[in-house]
Amino acid sequence: MSKTSINSISLTYGEMAFSATLLAKALIHGQESRSRNRIVNLLKDKVAEFNKERQELINKFGAKGKDGKLKETEGNYVIEDKKGFEKEINELVENFKGVFDILPSNRDDFISAKGTLDRVEIDMNYADEEMKIVISDKLGEI
Question: Is the pLDDT of residue 50 over 80?
Answer without folding.
Answer: yes
